[in-house]
Sequence to fold (510 residues):
Amino acid sequence: MIRLRRRWLASISVVLLGGVLLAQTPKAAPQNPAPTSQRSQEQRDAYRKAMEEADQKIADEVKAHSELMKNLEYLTTQIGPRLTGSPQMQAASDWTLKRFQEYGIDAHLETAEIDHGWTRGLETAEIISPIQRRIGIHAFGWSKGTDGDVSGEVVVLNIEKMADFDQYKGKLKGKIVMLRKPVDMSKIDPNPENAYDAVIPPSKGVPKERMGYRQYFQLLRLLNAEEPALVVFDSGKTDSLYNMTGGFPRYNPTEIPLAFLTHEDYDLLYRLLKSGPVNLKFNLHDTFTDQPVPAAITVAEIKGSEHPEQRVIIGGHLDSWDLGQGALDNGTGAMATLEAARALKALGWKPKRTITFILFTGEEQGGIGVDTYLKNHADEVRQMDAALIHDTGTGKVFSIALEDLWETAPLMSEIYKPLEEVFEMEPLSTRYFGASDHVGFLDHGVPAYFCIQAPAHYREVHHSQTDTFDKVIPDEINEGAALLAAWAWNVSQMPESLPHHAPKGEPAEQ
Fold:
């Protein structure tokens, strides 16, 4: 991916290395407050108490009347996986628009176009020598397909730095290329701290020098010039699970076919190569649309009563990969956002600032959804008070990442403390995570944050065929929905706005 390069590297790193609760608006925070540094402790205590009461009522509303699981089951079962630009993704956008409106919330679609839609077809592979064995194979999204069966000799590369590629120039035409040896599964942490780390393990000790994402793109360009028949990647997952990521450039055919094998089959090929030549036959019957196709995001709002021009944004991406059902990545985050909207509307409260709910598209393939929203609302960026994204599955949200926004820490701590009490949260995380739709807001100077969640099988389901509805933990994702709603409410009622920072590429103000 481009902006979401860490999500892309998450894949590549493992391959290469009822009723409505009727309630009055809760007690408001103090009126006409002084700046944070001058507000009295009494004023701060009043805000905290008001927010704790409100957050508990939000949690009670979700617990009593949630429609999250009903909505998620429809999304994953009746609509299914939702590749950006696919008919299923457009159906999901249309359906979520209707759901927001049925809850009495103003909503609309904002639509862009991508160059080509892509559909996965019949994909087969078979080792034809020195043994005969059918194996599974799945092309990268937007990978170039084949016109039928293609056969070739398998070769494995050993590349630690770009100069190592020189020895292979002129030798790869028509070959089936394994970029490097199999992933060492014994090195995978069996007990990751959070869902993000389950997919993108943090560096420990002195980090080893290795190629960055720009160098991997450069390597793919070098491979294009050599015209191999296919490049295969180790999925880097246990139990014959696949991985998935996008083609490059985004929404256009790759120059050469790219595909994942399961770790077990990739490892088999590697071991066979130790004894002599290996030949493989494959067929990737994947297709592209001839014309651009629409890619829509769903945007809904509860207008602010005092500062309607200011926005508090919560969201998650509605698109998914296509091997599973798009349940945990990221049907959970999208439906938690929808449920947060339902709960706040059901309570009948009027926020001071506008609360905006966004279901993005294209997070998995380069961020076109967040790009679309920011382009359409470029004149309003300075009035975007803050954003929070839910995007790592079904596990309990146990913290929120500050994302290096130290200038926001005093106000964020006040906003967060009621959540900490009501939802039994750990302290704010001081780690930087990135890698989801909030990064686009960060790049534009908007305070944007990321939910940190318990692993809850996220390593296994992430981008694989087991990303299915049965993996969802209802109590934990419902609590996540309540947390999103409560955070948005707390920010909407905060006397001051969270400070913006310099947009990416612009100097900080002195």
Observations:
- Residues 41-65 form the longest helix (25 residues).
- The longest strand covers residues 307-317.
- Residues 1-25 have pLDDT under 50 and may be disordered.
